[in-house]
Write a structure and sequence with these properties.
single chain; Muramoyl-pentapeptide Carboxypeptidase, domain 2; four-stranded antiparallel sheet; 10 helices
């Protein structure tokens, strides 16, 4: 059995067992197992074509219906993304960047401008989506580019509508256009359902992410020292729209 398969099997098998720490017990009671947070398990999600956490799906359908009434056709470019899918994205970019001459650290720093380390993506949770205007014309060949959402871009009307209405349905932009924000670059297409993702993020930040990553077969993982991981968690995972951070 491959190491990653062993880790996934172990995580799934132990998700319901009594846990020692009070926080882990709380996670279990609130239904936030590590297997879900790390993207190994999607059996709590719903949907055909794309999958979301159940209450997130209902809120999204309400949002989408409201947008239709105003002439906006919201299309999901990406919703739930499994660990395996994120690993494939990461591996492809890592291979391409290192083969082009970048050092492993430089390659990983390039990747994390827009893509997460497998096991750390908010898309693992089923609470986050990349959204565009499906009715826009002409449709760009590469839809997830910030320039399409501003100026005279095809998704400007959609972005204006989301700015005005998304939060009233619980959806917040994650990686805002704030010059002081670090980590992932601005993503005007990425929205998160706050009532659920806020709780998931609180649980996620209390995991020992470095130990988790050390167990997995991720290209470049041997170069992810404590300093790299701590900076990544601080800049890429926690430096987001403050409305989505755990309540203090």
């Amino acid at each position: 059995m491959k190491r990653i398969d062993f880790i996934k099997t172990t995580a799934l098998a132990t998700a319901g067992l009594p846990l020692l720490s009070s926080f882990k017990l709380k996670m279990e009671q609130e239904g936030i197992p590590k297997a879900l947070l790390m993207g190994y398990n999607n059996d709590r999600l719903v949907g055909d074509g794309f999958q979301l956490e159940r209450t997130t799906m209902q809120a999204f359908q309400d949002l989408k219906q409201a947008a239709v009434a105003d002439g906006i056709t919201i299309e999901v470019a990406s919703a739930f993304r499994s660990y395996d899918r994120q690993l494939a994205i990461w591996s492809g970019k890592y291979k391409r960047f290192t083969q082009s001459g970048l050092t492993p650290i430089a390659a990983m720093e390039k990747i994390i401008e827009y893509s997460t380390i497998p096991g750390t993506s908010r898309h693992h949770w089923g609470t986050d989506m990349d959204l565009i205007d499906g009715g826009a014309s002409p449709r760009p060949s590469s839809v997830l580019e910030a320039k399409h959402f501003h100026g005279k871009g095809p998704f400007c009307k959609f972005k204006e509508w989301m700015n005005a209405h998304a939060e009233s349905y619980g959806f917040h932009e994650v990686y805002t256009n704030n010059a002081q924000r670090k980590g992932f670059k601005y993503e005007p297409w990425h929205f998160s359902y706050k009532p659920v993702s806020q709780k998931y993020l609180e649980a996620y930040l209390k995991l020992d992410i470095k130990s988790e990553l050390e167990r997995l077969e991720i290209p470049g993982a041997e170069h992810m020292n404590l300093q790299f991981i701590e900076k990544y968690l601080q800049d890429n995972i926690a430096d987001i729209n403050p409305d989505l951070l755990p309540a203090r």
